[in-house]
Amino acid sequence: MQNNKNAARLQPKVVKIFIAILAVTILYTVFGFVGLPYIVKSILPEKLSNALNRQVSISKVEVNPYYLTMHLKGITVTDRSDKTFMSLDDFFVDLQIASLFKKALIVKNVRIAKPFLRLARKPDGTFNFSDLAGIKAPETSPDAEPQAPPIPNFFIENLLVESGRMALIDNLPSVPFETVLESLNITLKNVSNQAGSKAVYKLSVKTPEKELIDCKGTLSLFPLRSEGTLSLQNVLLKKYAPYYRDLIDFEIADGTIGIQTGFHYAWDDPSIGIRLSRASVSVASLKAHTKKDREKLFAIPSLAITDTDVDVFKQEITIGSLSSSKGYLLCKRFADGSLSLDRLIAVKALKAHSAPPQQTAVPAPAPWHVNLKSFVFEDHTIQVQDLTLAEPVNILLDHAKIEGKDLTTKPNGKGQVSISLRWNKKGNVSVKGSVAVDPVSANLAVNVSGLDIRSLQPYFTDKIKLVVNDGNINTNGRVQFSQKAGSDPVVSYQGDASITGFASVDRKLALDFLKWKSLYLANVNVGY
User: Fold this and answer.
1) How many angstroms separate the CA atoms of 444 and 364, rounded?
2) How far apart are CA 61 and CA 45, in angstroms?
3) Residue 254 domain boundaries
4) Tens digit of pLDDT for each residue in 134-149?
5) E strands in 387-465
6) Which of 68, 234, 332, 366 is most buried per CB count within 10 Å?
7) What does the buried/exposed string (b/e) look like for 262-271 if buried means 16 or more CB atoms within 10 Å of the residue's CB?
8) For residues 217 and 263, what is the distance between their CA atoms, to the nearest angstrom?
9) Can you give the C-alpha Rg of the chain in angstroms?
10) Do the beta carbons of residue 437 and residue 372 sit within 8 Å?
11) If pLDDT is split at 50, 70 and 90, which confidence band does 376 have?
12) Is residue 39 located within the same domain as residue 57?
């Protein structure tokens, strides 16, 4: 009987608790599914518009209070020129209830679907987002020391960017540049601001011309470090002409480049800084011509650089191998004395800004060192022309092969080089020996056979008043060259030389002047 009375007394309390829980649940449900989306859609665009000085709109907000998920759909940010600055179809966040207990923002999933970003540089060098950097922080007391707010701890298990696009417009170059990055996909796993934590990421993007960029690796935020691999494929050199056309005196007509490299970046450790490892570069179908008459200057069907390391801290580049085949190069001396090679290697000076008076002298930076372990240029053709003479010189050097190893710009370093080529389809030239860059020196065995004197006749015909009808130059000896800093070069030749099958005619009398089968000079020793 007593139990029945107690139960009767408890029943109203249980009912009240149940009703309260039900009411809270209903309120939580209604607020989560209806109220919160309405508040976010009403307030967030206005707050963002005021903060960014740009019109922000959100077409739809969906919240699931039980799964702690939110969808922001149809987000658009319009810049001051009424063009879309940024947009995305869907922004999805999946929070974890553990965030309440671990005093950290724990997110299971973040998904950004079909984002678009338009980046533009104006002719004055500013960007369409430059004003964002000038947004003022809330005013504080002048006596208060500025302190950066602490970054709350966070952990994102999965972050995904799908099917993104970026429009890049640059109006600063003399010829504006535009391109589109599409199919932008980014995955980021286990990203956190906890010291020493590492996230795994992958990024891929392409252009309408099928240029491809792929990057993957690991990332830590505190300290900021990253290591991984980077790949660029089918990069069209001609496409980026607006950035180099005013610096060079020729045009690149065609050519693609590909780059693959491992990398290591450490913001907190200067001894690591930026390092590239096992890098390789491939160039295909590279062609260049003069700007004025579009004369062919060089062509490189294929070029490969492999096993390359770059250490920014040590200022050193080590190239494992460099190879090229079937290339073409024009070495031309124009009537005004200028050289085609000057057009290839000369870089036009950029407009310099006047320096302030009495500026403290800055010491010259330490030089970079380059090491080339091995290289080979196979079956190349060099066209030599000299238009400064009354009778132009035209010499074809083909079947050229240049190879070497252990070249370096480090002081006192020596490498080996070997050159062989055909002279005007008849003569042969070979050079082999050691060379050094700092100081410049060479010790080379030189062998020349069947070099037709007539190909060089324009250089001496006016001086000796003879016409050479035939004759070949042959040498077998050693050439030594050296030049120390601040000194004149020293050159010497030791060996044998001969001229065979020589025949000449007096230009005035039109009669044979001098003939011989062979003129041989042994143990020649000349130099200066």
Assistant:
1) 34
2) 11
3) 223-346+368-410
4) 544 455 555 555 555 6
5) 393-408, 414-423, 427-436, 440-452
6) 332
7) ebbbbeeeee
8) 9
9) 37
10) no
11) very high
12) yes
- pLDDT in the model for residue 24: 78
Q: What are the residues whose beta carbons fall under 8 Å from the beta carbon of 372, sequence distance 6 or more?
A: 319, 322, 404, 405, 406, 407, 408, 415
- How far is the C-alpha of 204 from the C-alpha of 190, rounded, in Å? 19
Which of 358, 379, 410 is the last residue before a domain boundary? 410
Q: Quick: pLDDT tens for 23-35.
A: 777 887 887 788 8
Contact 409, 396 (CB under 8 A): no
Residue 317 is assigned to a structural domain of this protein: yes
How, if at all, do strands 316-319 and 321-325 pair?
unpaired
For residue 34, give the DSSP letter: I
Which residue, chain included where needed, has tokens 């392409």? 206
Do the Cβ atoms of 334 and 293 come closer than 8 Å? no
In 3D space, the residue among 369, 232, 371 whose CA is nearest the CA of residue 312 turns out to be: 369
Asked if 103 contacts 153 with a C-beta cutoff of 8 angstroms, the reply is yes
Q: How many residues does the chain have?
A: 528
Q: Which amino acid is at 239?
A: K
Domain identity same for 121 and 28 = yes
In the chain, the largest separation of any two C-alpha atoms, in whole Å, equals 154
Shared domain for 207 and 259, answered yes or no, is: no
